[in-house]
Specification:
The protein is α+β, with helices and mostly antiparallel strands and about 210 residues long. It has a single domain, classed as DHBP synthase. It is about 40% helix and about 25% strand. It has nine helices and eight strands. The longest helix is centred in the middle third of the chain and has 13 residues. It is globular, with a radius of gyration of 17 Å.
Length: about 210
């Protein structure tokens, strides 16, 4: 079984996997799992053992249905109050995948492991609902940062890699991911692979997915 097949099998079982995008891009590894398996314990693991920003990725079809914008599109629009700020692409040339941040209306502050797990779980459960239902159940700004995949054929970031991996696993387009950090910097490829091996997680490089 190759690493991609192993990652697919682990995702289906609710386990975590480590995805390294590539030396030519961010050169970063993300720890991730499918949103249907979100629990406070898994959120805490991302927070403590990965250390980056915990995000929830979805696909462009879901974003279109719920009318979720790319954050850069509306914050840099002509009528934006901060339009004079410099809006630019990432250092590696991509438009950021960030959309809005959300909380489910059942949360308290939204930041706790319990609250973020609830928001993530409810988002995944409601993927087939209407925009009106989404608006009724969630609010913004919140503590779960949504990411929108542009499709693996257009962009090869962790957002797209995670959604493509979910697709290959036959899972819904909702993946939880967090950058792996090390003393303030990105965790090296070697250390990320060692972490995956030590924890029994699949380690997959972006080129194996796309």
């Amino acid at each position: 079984m190759n690493s991609l097949e192993r990652a697919i099998n682990q995702l289906k079982k609710g386990e975590m996997v480590v995805i390294y995008d590539g030396d030519e891009r961010e050169g970063e590894a993300d720890l991730m799992f499918h949103a249907s398996f979100a629990t406070p314990e898994r959120i805490m693991k991302l927070r403590k053992e990965a250390g980056g920003l915990i995000c929830l990725a979805t696909d462009s079809e879901t974003a279109e249905k719920f009318e979720l914008p790319f954050f850069a599109d509306f914050v840099c629009a002509e009528n934006s109050p901060v339009k004079d700020m410099k809006c630019t692409k990432t250092a590696y040339g991509d438009k950021p995948a960030f959309s809005i941040s959300i909380n489910h209306k059942k949360v308290y502050t939204g930041i706790t492991d319990n609250d973020r797990a609830l928001t993530i779980s409810e988002f995944e459960k409601n993927l087939n609902d209407s925009k009106d239902s989404f608006i009724k159940d969630f609010y913004t700004p919140g503590h779960v940062f949504l990411l929108i995949s542009s499709g693996i054929e257009k962009r090869k970031g962790h957002t797209e890699l995670s959604i493509e991996l979910a697709k290959k696993a036959g899972l819904s387009p909702a993946m939880v991911l967090c950058e792996m950090l090390d003393s303030g910097n990105a965790l090296s490829k070697e250390k990320a692979k060692r972490y995956a091996d030590d924890n029994g997680f699949a380690f997959v490089e972006g080129k194996e997915i796309w």
